[in-house]
Every structure is written in structure tokens, then in C-alpha cells.
Inverse folding.
């Protein structure tokens, strides 16, 4: 019995699209503050409570990294070191976000020293 070329081609196209979509990077959903910009980070320097909340959030990201990557643990890090790292990141990338600084800090401190790739 001859196969229908249209169905065969459609099946191949769907398989190809599924493969392409499976390899596509899924955007990371950041669960954080309403404003994760470096400008918000810099402005928080004069607001002790806000800055403490931001630093605690970054430390939470580091803890989440340790939970998700038991083979690449981030060592103990002080809040002062976190603050200095994010300060430097935001000076170098003022249009960036401090969430990016947190993610790069996990890269640096876990020994991976490169962004996570799937």
C-alpha cells in the first residue's frame, strides 16, 4: 500500500519542529522584586532595610543554586562579599540587573565560572 507523501512530509516537519523547540533555550523566570535593575540596587545603598532585602535575595539565589546543583556547591559567603560583588557588577553594567549579578556569582563561586547551558 503506497504511503501518502503529504502525511509523510508533515510528520517529518512536525518531528523537526519538535526537535528545534526542544533545543531552544527557555527564558529564565526571575522571582524577585518588582525592580531588579542595577539602578534600584544603587539607590538602595541609602536604605538599609531595602539593601538588606536585596542581599538576602541574592543569598537565597546562592542557596537555590546549591539545592539544584549538589555537585557544584557555592561555599559560605558573607553578606559584605555579596554586596561588593553586586556593587562592582552594577558599576560595570549600570543598565543591567542585580539578578544577573546573582547568577554570575553562582557561576564564579561554584567553580563552573561559566553560565549554565542546557
Amino acid at each position: 500500500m503506497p504511503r501518502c507523501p503529504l502525511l509523510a512530509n508533515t510528520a517529518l516537519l512536525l518531528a523537526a519542529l519538535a526537535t528545534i523547540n526542544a533545543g531552544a533555550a527557555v527564558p529564565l523566570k526571575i522571582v524577585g522584586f518588582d525592580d531588579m535593575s542595577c539602578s534600584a540596587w544603587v539607590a538602595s545603598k541609602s536604605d538599609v532595610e531595602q539593601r538588606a532585602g536585596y542581599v538576602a535575595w541574592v543569598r537565597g539565589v546562592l542557596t537555590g543554586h546549591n539545592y539544584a546543583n549538589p555537585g557544584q556547591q557555592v561555599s559560605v559567603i558573607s553578606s559584605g562579599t555579596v554586596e561588593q560583588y553586586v556593587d562592582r557588577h552594577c558599576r560595570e553594567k549600570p543598565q543591567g540587573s542585580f539578578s544577573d549579578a546573582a547568577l554570575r556569582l553562582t557561576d564564579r563561586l561554584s567553580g563552573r565560572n561559566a553560565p549554565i547551558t542546557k
Notes: The domain at 27-109 is CATH 1.10.890 (10k-s Protein, Hypothetical Protein A; Chain A). The mean pLDDT is 79. The helical segments are 5-23, 38-43, 48-68, 79-92, 98-109. DSSP finds five helices and no strands in the chain.
